[in-house]
Amino acid sequence: MELKPRQIEAYNAVNEHLTSGINKQLVALPTGVGKTVLGCHIANTFKSSLFLVHRKELIDQTARTMRAICPEIEIGEVANGIVNIKPFTIGMIQTAVNRLPKLDKNLFEMMIIDEAHHAMAKTWKQVAEHFDTRLRLGLSATPDRADGAPLANLFDKIVYQMSVAAAVKEGYLCQPRCFQYRTDVNISSVKNAAGDFRSNDLSRMVNTQKRNDLVLKCYMDKSIGRKALGFAVDIAHAKALATTFRDEGIRAEWVSGDDSDREEKIELFRRNEIQVLFNAMLLTEGFDMPDIETILMARPTQSKVLFTQMAGRGLRLFDGKDYCLIMDFVDLTNKHNLATSWALFDSKGCYPVGEMSDPFAEHNDRRGKIGRMFDAVESLFGEILSDKVIEKMIDILKPPPKPEIDYDRWSEGKYHEKATDKQLWRLRQAGYDVDETDWTKGQASRVISNLSAKAILTTKQWGLLLKKGYDISEEWTYNQALTALNS
How far apart are CA 119 and CA 96, in angstroms? Predict the structure, then answer.
């Protein structure tokens, strides 16, 4: 549990900013780099601290980490209806918010908010602002929320951050190998909810036997025998995928939050008695199983946050694990922007594959140059899929540069004023949550502006970008494509 170089840099950054008077801080480290270890080391320098989590599994994980760092420390809990305050207290958000009237605001010297992108929810915000702490520290692998609301109301500054690409380059995470499979399933009619696709509508479009057979075929083609975690749209989709895989003799299962056998199935997966485990929005956070070798992205999403969380489940280091295979099933659409494997890595932190062992070497002769878009062919998947499918092998550590929309995420002023009724109405019409999330003028203005700026690129732009070597997924907007083609 010794701090690694990047954790030491983050540790020092927290202390330096606290000394300069910034006491509401956010640290962004990728999944697998050690946010919990960092947080426990910092908490160990304070007389009393509260470590807020949102899942039972995280209570046990955090307690084990803290005991490894400081065996003699007393650890308390505010969870499962129990209030037991100690120098290091782990709090479940659901219990903490219900016990606030009985908890003195000066009870803790510092507070850590794990998975801090949740913190805009009213329950989290209520707990965070109840306590008068010397340091409020948020930890997150994805400091942007899926619904587009920045965290500027709870944290003054990101004091330290690291990209996933940098973590791979520096050896904190394993190398990814990614294949995209683009089908002709059109999800343009799927409506939005809280910044992402509405799951019921999406399930009807993608949970078909033909598409589930495609996921199976691709897994058998490139990942047979590898331990895989699959992400589905909903429980029905997870069940259907597991059944499809079992019918081919693959030891596959599904799991959900309401599944009474959840813990048993996860333990069987941990012991490799289950080879492929499908889930729906359950194992995106706080799930640590480093020997997962393949991620099956069977759930289209507009959220870079969610995509990063899903991919991060397979990027942890493990003895004998040379790379993580990410199989990204992206459906065609002419309306929505999709988060894809290209969006996972920060291009500023990317590096040429040649600087490390080439993770695509074994496929180069058969598939051609890295990043090439293959022609769609009717018979690509034989009898399983007769419609057009595009397979693209991509180097996600070095995508072509893409223009970004600049904005000051941490600006003052209007960020701290309550959103107007007109803004809230516009957000509600667009499918955003305005009942459980506290919106400010600045946050609402940014999201509403982005809604207007997301006009999709034209077919002509699509072709020109492809010729120039750019990724042509639907994350491109008309304005971004225009900027790139004129540069």
Answer: 14
